[in-house]
Amino acid sequence: MSINLTKQQVTKGERINLTKEEGGNLTRLYVGTGWDVKRYDGGEDFDVDLYLFLLDENGKCLGSDYFIAGGGPRAFTKDNGEFYDHDPEKAVFHHGDNTTGIGDGDDEAVDIDLTKLNPKVKKIVCIDAIYMAEERKQKFGMIDNCFFHATNPDTGKDWNFDLSEDYDQQTAIVGFEIYNHNGQWKLNPVGEGYIKDVLQLCTEYGLDAAY
């Protein structure tokens, strides 16, 4: 059975009580992001990656297994060769790495089962970061039409966040924060840009960047 999406545009800093809007029946979320190349010099590919950090009440990642990234030829791998595409509880699953951004719709996405999350997870941070940005001299100023959206797959309600702000020098953008407050899941469209790579972000969220 197909579900027609009911789209709601959200703006930077607007906090949405997802649980309340869904009548207290929110159990799952799909988060997608997309982008298009606007301009760049040189022959290197332009690759934006979606990363998630599953944080505790102190704003620190529960551990390296709670860092989520897509699987693929450019992906981080664990010592046993596995990708970081899901958490130990298999509550979060990354659909995989898109290395070009070509085509319409979502370029990378994750499924989140809120009922399976480790109860210590109080916030999920969703970030787009440019692969090898410093080495390739690439920035979000070279990207058009970047967006995040979150969908309740059970009802089709969709919250869309267009990143229309000028991120000319930034190499990473925090798109969404999905957090639990008093037992209710809320959405914060952050839209904050950083001149950092993913390993620096790992350090910021309490992980050993050498893994």
Low-confidence stretches: none
Count of alpha/pi helices: 3
For the record, the CATH class is: Mainly Beta
* Helix percentage range: under 10%
Per CATH, the architecture is: Sandwich
In total, the number of domains comes to 1
Q: What are the secondary-structure elements, in order, as H or E?
A: EEHEEEEEEHEEEEH
CATH overall fold name: Lipoxygenase-1
**How large, in whole angstroms, is the Cα Rg?**
16 Å
* Nearest-integer average pLDDT: 90
CATH H-tier superfamily: sav2460 like domains
Number of strands: 12
The fraction of residues assigned to DSSP E strands is: 35-45%
Topology:
Layout: E1 6-9, E2 16-17, H1 18-21, E3 28-37, E4 48-55, E5 67-69, E6 92-94, E7 108-113, E8 123-130, H2 133-136, E9 143-151, E10 157-162, E11 172-181, E12 184-194, H3 198-204
Parallel strand pairs: 1-10
Antiparallel strand pairs: 2-12, 3-7, 3-9, 4-5, 4-8, 6-7, 8-11, 9-10, 11-12
What does this 3D model show about the protein?
This protein is mainly β and 211 residues long. It has a single domain (6-204), classed as Lipoxygenase-1. 7% of the residues lie in helices and 38% in strands. The protein has three helices and twelve strands, in the order E-E-H-E-E-E-E-E-E-H-E-E-E-E-H. It has helices at residues 18-21, 133-136, 198-204; strands spanning 6-9, 16-17, 28-37, 48-55, 67-69, 92-94, 108-113, 123-130, 143-151, 157-162, 172-181, 184-194. The strands form two sheets. A six-stranded mixed β-sheet has the order 1-10-9-3-7-6, with no helix packed on it. A six-stranded antiparallel β-sheet has the order 2-12-11-8-4-5.
